[in-house]
Each structure stands twice: as C-alpha cells, then as structure tokens.
Amino acid sequence: MYAYPYSIDPSGYHGHIVSGKTGAVAVEAEECSNTGIEILKQGGNAVDAAIASGLCIGVIDSFATGIGGGGFMLIRSPNGTYEHIDFRETAPAAAHKDMFVENPELAKYGGLAVGIPGEIRGYELAHQRHGKLPWSVLFEPAIRISRDGFKCTPLLEQRLKKAEPWLMDMPEWREIFAPEGHLAKAGDLIRRPNLATTLETIAIEGADAFYKASNMRKWMHFHVINHIMIQGEIAHYLVNATRAAGGIMTLQDMASYKPQIRPVVSTYYHGRKVVSCSTPTSGPLIIAALNILERFNLRLNGYTGLDLHRIIETLKHGFSFRTEFGDPDYISNDGRIQEIMSKEWASRIRQNISDDTTYPPLYYHPRYDHVESHGTMHLSVVDGDDGAVALTSTVNLLFGARFMDPVTGVILNDEMDDFSIPGKPNAFGLYPSEYNYVAPGKRPLSSITPVIVESDGKFELAVGGSGGSLIPSATLNVILNVIDFEQDLYSAVNAPRYHHQLLPNLAVMEPGFNHILEQDLTRRGHEIFHLNTSQRISAVQAVMRLPDQSVHGVSDPRKLGIAAAY
C-alpha cells in the first residue's frame, strides 16, 4: 500500500499566494524561502538562491533532505537555454544486484542502505556553471541557523513523533532533537552545531572538503580550528560512521563521485513549451502524459468526471511506461524512451483509452513491477532576468538511513532502497525491473519530476513536488490546473488531488472532490481509495511569471510552507 508522508492536520492553517515584481522563491519552510529572496536581493541569480535555500531546508527539514542526500536540478538560463544537473546518489563500488535479496530491510536502514551523497557536488557544478555570488556566501544562512538555532516547525514536530521509537535510543539524535529529555515541539529552539562546522568547512574549503580524504592524515580525533574542520576529515568521518553501521562505502567512492549534466526532455502542450529532466528521473512520464492529454482538450468542458477519468487513465499508462526507466548510463533503451515521449506514441495510446471504462493493470502493458519511492523536498525559484530553477533533493525515507554521523552532524540517505531487488513476481506476474537492479556506481530510478513551462518563449512556471511516487501525479495536477483549468497559482496548488500509479490498481483521492465526479469514476470501474483529512498527496512548490510581469509564489499548505517574493 501507500506511505503518505504528508499526514499532518492542516486545520487552522491556510497558505497563501505571495506576489512581487522581480523574483520569487517557494520552499517548504518560510525561513528558507526568505533565504532565497535575500540572496536574490544581494545580486545573486536563481541558481544562487536555489543553492542557499536548498542548504537551508536541509538543516530544518532534515527528515527529507540534506547534504547527506542527492537530487536533480533543472535550470533555465535567462537566454532560454536549459540544463539538467543529476546529483543523484550512486551505489558504492562494492554493491551488487543481490545484496538485499536475503534481507530487503537492509536497503532502508543502516549503513548498507547509504548511497554516495551527491548534493554538495551537484551544487558545486551548478555554481561553477551559473552562479554569481561567492560560494561561501550561499552557505552563510544555513551555517547561521545551524549554529544559532531554528524554531521547530509543526511539520518537524510531527516527523519527530513518528521517529520517536528509534530516535530516543540514539544519543547523537537525542542531543539535537531531545536535549531536555523529550522530543522538541513546535516553537522549541533546535541547534545543530556540528553540522554548522561541517557547512562552514565546505563553504571555505570547497566541495573537496566533503568528498576527498586528506593525504596528510588518516582517521583521527575530531579536530577543529576556529570552527573549521581540517580538510579531508569529513569524508573520513562519514565513511567510518557508515562502515561502523554495516555499510560498504569507501573513501574512494566519495572521491570518485561526479554529478552528471544530462539532456532535458520537452514537449509543447497547447502551445506552451514544457521542459523536464531526463531519466533517471520520471520527467519522461510527465512529457508522455501531457502529449496524451493534449488532444482531449480538457479545458473545453471544464472539470468533469470524463476529464478526471481520462487523466487517471493517462497516469495508469504513464506509470506503466515508468517501469522501463532507469539509469541511462547502465541501460540502452533511449530509443524506447524517445518513442514514449513522441506525439505519435501518444496518439496510439489515446486509442486505447476508453471513455466508458477502466481496465485491469495488465491491459496497460507494464513490463516490470513498480518500485516505490519516498520522501524528498522540492523548491522553485525565478529571478528578475527570468532565470529559473526547479530543484528536488532527498534522503529518501524519514530521516534517511536513520543514522547520523555524530561528528559531522550529517544525516545519511537510504537511497539504496530505490533500487529494485531481484525476486519473485507480484500478483500480476510482473518481476522487479532489471533496468533498476543495483550495480556499482549506478543511480536508482527516481520519481522526481522538476518542470519549467514557457509561454511564447518566455518563462511562465517552475513547479515540482515531494512525496516519492506521488510526485508525478501531483506535478501533473498543478500543471493542468494552471494551463487547462486556468486557476490562479494558489488555487492550482491547493486544489484536491488524485493519484494513480497502476500498481496497486486504486484511484487515490484527497478530500474535497464532489460526489458526482467520484460517482462518474466508480461507474467507469475505478476503485477509489479515499484519503482522510490528515492525509495528502505530495507537496508542491511553484513560482510563476504573470503576463503583467509580476511574479507569484506558492508553497503547498500540505507541508505548511510559505513562499517569498519581492
């Protein structure tokens, strides 16, 4: 079944749209949205703001993201060119496809679950190619809030309660999140001084301080000079902590990590250019879905039961396609991916969508079983020159691999859980995807789908979501709400959402849909899974340039966020 990470009661909380004339930043925490705006005001661009905001949210929402994880960045330069930076975590060199067959839980918790972190190298590459402000300036807000402290948010309080059964047994976690003997609550001050030292070291010494071991020293006691860790010590501490927890990561794995510049994928939807990231993200799913939906002309009749049925059928086909995705450096199916994203393929798929009924999963021809993914953080930025960034970063499950290096303060990811594990077929006879088996240096398939939309060649929208396998449908929901149903940005983000990932064969719906729409779906054979009032489908962060050149920003109230603009 599904894991719904956004199970916080939003009663009494109402997000809102923010507007400005120049730039906007939408992050899950208001403090980090404001961080991005301050960077823009200092003369930074969208990439600078995204990096600073990403570092900030990694301190506050450490249950979902941080420098111990990785992700993807979609960048639009002011001249309209695009770049996709893949800083997804990779499998260690000693990894192999059968390593979790005997005990799949080891892919979730502990040292063996850890992929090589990519976030700092990804930020470094983005900054080298696009940044304007000095590297160290981008770290200052995150260093400050780590050292001086930040107020525990209601969202963090809820996540800490979920983690309490294991967190309170670990002294390094208690020291940060329960210094008084009980878990922090909303409004309590949380400090992460060791992480502040780590961030300050990277700010001054550069990304090599995180990844490369010193030639002068091997493992030694913690040594800090004026809050700066000796270069090369960070990698030693992370590797030793991981191996002590049963992992196989090495210093060579850390030193060898490289982010990738990959192609973007795009299509035109009702005249607008829609751009996303190529595999191993799920960007091609969004492109394929929009191509299928375009000829249905959803805007013609407004929001009807037939429209919703067609969208859900499109998602079922899209998640079927997704079972063929994986790390493009390890599989040779680019021709197939290009076919799936073509208008011709969309035309053939539309012919298989009946307006009268839905079908069992095998009708959609999935090649493999679906792999579930989790967690994440998304942020969106636009600057005064219409440079824009859609960035998604993750440590995967709640607090990643559930262990923190006590010296550096870094919480490590459990991204190995996003690989497929060889095994028996599911109830439909579908085997796990060989395209997504573990291999040395390989990146696991991701549900992440950053999107940027242009209208008449000009920036219009940057959008993306968090929430694992729920991300593609949530992102699609918002795009359709803006383009087809002409909703303002807050309404588009706040509107109730639907989700279908083919396996399991359930149409998942948030509260708020009228009963006639649901009856129309049931009449067509859909089995509906109703979320309760405390469950939500993903959390979306979006920024938009309007025709009058003003900007709007919205952080999803599902994750209690507030955007910022100026």
UniProtKB/TrEMBL annotation:
<feature type="binding site">
    <location>
        <begin position="394"/>
        <end position="396"/>
    </location>
    <ligand>
        <name>L-glutamate</name>
    </ligand>
</feature>
<comment type="similarity">
    <text>Belongs to the gamma-glutamyltransferase family.</text>
</comment>
<feature type="binding site">
    <location>
        <position position="88"/>
    </location>
    <ligand>
        <name>L-glutamate</name>
    </ligand>
</feature>
<dbReference type="GO" id="GO:0006751">
    <property type="term" value="P:glutathione catabolic process"/>
</dbReference>
<dbReference type="GO" id="GO:0000324">
    <property type="term" value="C:fungal-type vacuole"/>
</dbReference>
<dbReference type="InterPro" id="IPR043138">
    <property type="entry name" value="GGT_lsub"/>
</dbReference>
<feature type="binding site">
    <location>
        <begin position="446"/>
        <end position="447"/>
    </location>
    <ligand>
        <name>L-glutamate</name>
    </ligand>
</feature>
<keyword id="KW-0012">Acyltransferase</keyword>
<dbReference type="InterPro" id="IPR029055">
    <property type="entry name" value="Ntn_hydrolases_N"/>
</dbReference>
<keyword id="KW-0378">Hydrolase</keyword>
<dbReference type="GO" id="GO:0005886">
    <property type="term" value="C:plasma membrane"/>
</dbReference>
<dbReference type="InterPro" id="IPR000101">
    <property type="entry name" value="GGT_peptidase"/>
</dbReference>
<dbReference type="GO" id="GO:0103068">
    <property type="term" value="F:leukotriene C4 gamma-glutamyl transferase activity"/>
</dbReference>
<keyword id="KW-0808">Transferase</keyword>
<dbReference type="GO" id="GO:0036374">
    <property type="term" value="F:glutathione hydrolase activity"/>
</dbReference>
<comment type="function">
    <text>Cleaves the gamma-glutamyl peptide bond of glutathione and glutathione conjugates.</text>
</comment>
<dbReference type="Pfam" id="PF01019">
    <property type="entry name" value="G_glu_transpept"/>
</dbReference>
<dbReference type="InterPro" id="IPR043137">
    <property type="entry name" value="GGT_ssub_C"/>
</dbReference>
<dbReference type="GO" id="GO:0006805">
    <property type="term" value="P:xenobiotic metabolic process"/>
</dbReference>
<feature type="binding site">
    <location>
        <position position="468"/>
    </location>
    <ligand>
        <name>L-glutamate</name>
    </ligand>
</feature>
<comment type="pathway">
    <text>Sulfur metabolism; glutathione metabolism.</text>
</comment>
<protein>
    <recommendedName>
        <fullName>Glutathione hydrolase</fullName>
        <ecNumber>2.3.2.2</ecNumber>
        <ecNumber>3.4.19.13</ecNumber>
    </recommendedName>
</protein>
<feature type="active site" description="Nucleophile">
    <location>
        <position position="376"/>
    </location>
</feature>
<feature type="binding site">
    <location>
        <position position="418"/>
    </location>
    <ligand>
        <name>L-glutamate</name>
    </ligand>
</feature>
